[in-house]
Structure formats: C-alpha cells, structure tokens
Amino acid sequence: FATFSPMQPASLALSVPHAFVCGATLVIGMATAVAMAAAGATVTVCGRNDQGLVRALEALPTPAGQKHWSVEVDFAISAAVATAAAAHLRTAGPVHVLVNNTGGPPAGSAIEARADDFRKAFEMHVLSGQALVQAFAPGMREAGYGRIVNIVSTSVVTPIRGLGVSNTVRAAVGNWARTLAVELAPFGITVNSILPGFTRTARLDAIFQGRAQRAGSSLQEVEADAMRAVPMARFAAPEEIAAVAVFLASPAASYVTGVNLPVDGGRLALG
User: Fold this and answer.
1) What pTM was computed for the model?
2) Which residue, 50, 72, 160, 262, has fewest beta-carbon neighbours within 10 Å?
3) Please, are residues 107 and 209 in contact by the beta-carbon 8 Å criterion?
4) Which residues does residue 19 pair with via DSSP β-bridges, in sequence order?
5) pLDDT along the chain (271 residues), means of 10
6) Half-sphere exposure for 228 (CA within 13 Å, toward CB)
7) What is the 3-state secondary structure (H, E, C) of 85-123?
8) What is the dihedral of CA 86, 173, 53, 69, to 10 degrees?
C-alpha cells in the first residue's frame, strides 16, 4: 500500500483494501457496504441476521470482479465476535477497513435504566469493537494501511433526549476511538467516528413514534419539531452517511484521524 503524498492526486478509490462492514443488514450499514464495494473494495458484510446478510451480499456491486463475504455473529457477545473475526481472517485474509456500526440500545431515560442495560450496551458497542480492532489491526499495521470508521451518533457531543443508555455508551465509543487514533497513528492506521444526525432509518422512526406516544401528539408533529432543529431542513439519506465513510476509508483521508465528524445537516452547529 502506498501512503498518500502531497505530490500525488488524492484518491477515493478502494481498489485494494478489504472492508469489513458491521451492521450491514441495517440501513446505514448496508448503504456503507454498497458504497465501499462500488469504490472498489472487497467487502465482508457482518450482522446477526442470516437472511439480511444474504440480501446485503446480493446488493453489493462488483465493478472490479470482487469476491464478497459474509460473517454472521451477534455483537452482544464480544467473545463470539473475537472468534468469528479470527476465523474470517484465516478464510478471507487481512482486513484493511473496519466499519463499526451497531444498532443502538433501546430508548429510555438514564435514571430508570438498569445496571445490566449499561453492561449490555458496553459489551455490544465497545467490547465487540475492541475485539475486531485487536483482530484486524495487525494486518493493517503490516500493510501500512488501515482505516477504522465508527458510525456512532451526534450524542457523542450532545445527549439526545430519551436515549439515556445510548448517550452514555456512544460517548464511550467516541473517546475509545480517539484513544486508539493516537496509539495507531504511527502505523498508518487512522481511527475516526461519524456522528450521523437524523437519518431515515427504522430506529429513527421508532424513536419518533415513542416521542409521539409519550407527548400525546402525532408522528408528523414530532418529525416537524425535529426538522426545525436541522438547518438544512431535511433528514439525511443513508447514502450520505455512507459517502463520508468511503472518504474516511480512502487514501484521500490519510491525514485525518481522531475526529468525531458530524454528518447532521448543521444541527450541532446550532449549539
């Protein structure tokens, strides 16, 4: 792998790396897997839903004749994630791009959450991510090229009402990633987190429906209220999050690391 030089044109192509995309049966994860494949990467889609993985594989383009893979594992069990990652390395070879993306914890207030709710969230979002990084980082280091991209939430910066456990664990992921960025930077490995704003997903729909029920208002009223907090006056499409993930995975982003990057239509800029 050639590292980027200012004398060379920046490239968004991923013609060599092998990208491992977690949560690929989910909306943002699948969009990211498709975008990585379209950019030229060999892609492994990872998730816990076997039928969803079949659909994700079928959706992947092969512009350079890539062979794509799938790994079925439940991120609620970090030891199983470590075992699955090690087995996949033996089958598919080194991973150069890791996209950590996992469905968020259930909605609810922090004060009413049980200790076990926090433990489960930490296991899924931090310990399973740690297992993957520990499995894949040696191959990245050997290649002199590695990209770790975490798809998290704007709650890393500003907590979101009604998502107590999620706010807590997302902030943990953000600082875990920044710590890794410093540790892995000397080896050509970057670590960055994308903070999506309101994005059209089933989870967003569920959150808004919950707010509507608690407030005794309509779903349309809740969506309109949320929209007023977005300067661009619209919600993101999953493909817009995926496009940023491809940039961070590419040679063009070789000097970007340790960043929590909002992709939120300007919502955090409002303070």
Assistant:
1) 0.91
2) 50
3) no
4) 43, 97
5) 49 80 95 95 96 96 90 97 98 97 92 98 98 98 97 94 95 98 98 93 78 83 84 92 96 96 94 73
6) 5
7) HHHHHHHHCCCCEEEECCCCCCCECCCCCCHHHHHHHHH
8) -40
